[in-house]
Each structure stands twice: as structure tokens, then as C-alpha cells.
Amino acid sequence: MQTDRDFTAALVRRAEQAGYRALVVTVDAPVNGLRNREQRAGTALRAGMEAVNLQGMRTPPPPSPETLLFGTPLLAAAPTWTDLAWLRGLTRLPILLKGITEPADAARTIEAGMDGIIVSNHGGRTLDGVRATVELLPEIVETADGAVPVLMDGGIRRGNDILRAIALGATAVLVGRPYVHALAAAGAPGVAHVLRLLRAELELAMTLTGCATIADIDRAVLVRGA
Ligand SMILES: Cc1cc2nc3c(=O)[nH]c(=O)nc-3n(C[C@H](O)[C@H](O)[C@H](O)COP(=O)(O)O)c2cc1C
């Protein structure tokens, strides 16, 4: 959800026309968290690199040196439930909200007509102190009560982690840094390798806990040592 809502609407149309089958809207990071190491490293896109799908977007003017965050156009444009309702009315594509960390917001996501929940704390990169997603997952699964798929991300590093998340009710998991690191280390084949490793480890963990199919994975695997 970009601050330029006309641009957001155009992006949705482009996604539809390109054959995308769902939209994921990040709701937990209207602004970046405080990342001191990133600041110290002076992280910036290299010359020649840009967000190609955001070309031509109007961006709010940078805040004046006296302003911090409150009162800036960036914060004024942070998406609210009203904006999400607007987006819901704009497209028939399934919409998943990414960054849900509380049962109340999970309930509201379903009420708002969304099609899925992604339990995520942005990989712990946004608000210090948010509980781990694996801890948040069970109560959100309970709230969703099968109405929509509940996915999760954060800290998925081995097949066992996937097995545990599914045992706690996740429909699926997402990975962030493993594939980013693989991309940096070995390009596209590295990403394929990471996905293959995760799948092989999941199959091994399923075999060792006696699960022939994903549907066989339940909380009992947790006491079998997974
Ligand atoms: C370098 C980097 C950039 C990210 N950028 C975004 C982003 O633009 N939007 C978003 O929703 N999440 C972003 N994330 C968070 C990931 O989508 C994901 O929630 C998180 O990395 C999952 O945790 P994991 O890295 O432990 O698997 C980013 C993560 C990293 C590491």
C-alpha cells in the first residue's frame, strides 16, 4: 500500500493484468523500525538499482529537519482499516494481510472480507519486543477458526521449523532471509537450493515423526521431539 493511492490502484490493475493470483498487503510497517546497524552501515541502493515497479510514483516530500515523524505526510498516509476497505472494493483478487500479531486484528481482517492472514513481525526487524511469531500463531489460528488460511513467517530456517509451525496450525510458512542470503551468495541457483534443502528437511522431519502427508501433522509431533 503506497502513500500515492492512485499509484496503488494502478499497481493493483497491473497485478491483475499480469495474472497475479493474490495480493499481500503489509500492515505492520508504515515506516521502518529503528535499525542502528543498518544506519551505521549506511545501507543504500547502489547506483543503477531501483524499485522498478514503483517507477513514476509520487512520494511525500522529505520531512523538514525540525519534524521527526508525527505530522509528516508519510505518517498521515499510513494505511488504516478504511484504506483496506477501499482496497477490498477495488479488486476481486484474494487479499492477505501480512503483519498480523494480535487475535483482535485477525478477527477484524476476516470481518473486512480479506482472504488470508500472515502472522509476521517483519522478521523482528520493525518493533523491538514483539513476541516471536511462533508464540503468536496458536491464538490467531484459534481466532481464525478455519475461516481463512493462516500463514506465518519469521525465523523459518530448517524443515523442523516448518513442521512446528504447521503443527501449531499454520497453513503454510514464508521465508525471508534464507532466500535473500542464498541470492547474495549464489544467485538464483542458491535460492532454488535453499528451497530444496527446506523441502528435504521437512520431508525428513515428517518421516521421523510419522507423518505421511501435511494433513497428518498435528500437535502430537511436538511431543515426539520436533
Ligand atoms: C532485506 C529485507 C527486506 C524486507 N522488505 C520487506 C518489505 O518491503 N515488505 C515486507 O512486507 N516485508 C519485508 N521484509 C520482511 C520479510 O517479508 C519477512 O517478513 C521476514 O524477513 C521473515 O522473517 P525471516 O527473514 O526470519 O524469514 C524484509 C526482510 C528483509 C530481510
Quick summary of this structure?
It is built from nine helices and five strands, in the order αβαααβαβαβαβαα. The longest helix is centred in the last third of the chain and has 32 residues, at 177-208. The chain has helices at 5-17, 36-41, 73-76, 81-90, 103-111, 133-144, 159-167, 177-208, 220-223; strands spanning 23-26, 95-100, 116-119, 150-153, 172-174.
Key structural traits:
5-stranded parallel sheet, globular, 226 residues, TIM Barrel, alpha/beta, binds flavin mononucleotide, 44% helix
Walk me through this protein's architecture.
The chain is α/β, with parallel strands linked by helices and 226 residues long. The protein folds into 2 domains: 5-154, TIM Barrel; 176-226, no CATH class. The protein is built from 9 helices and 5 strands. It has helices at residues 5-17, 36-41, 73-76, 81-90, 103-111, 133-144, 159-167, 177-208, 220-223, and strands at 23-26, 95-100, 116-119, 150-153, 172-174. It has a 5-stranded parallel sheet with strand order 1-2-3-4-5, with helices on one face. Helix 5 links the parallel strand 2 (95-100) and strand 3. Helix 5 (103-111) crosses helix 6. The longest helix has 32 residues, at 177-208. The chain starts with a helix and ends with a helix. The site of flavin mononucleotide has 13 residues, from helix 8.
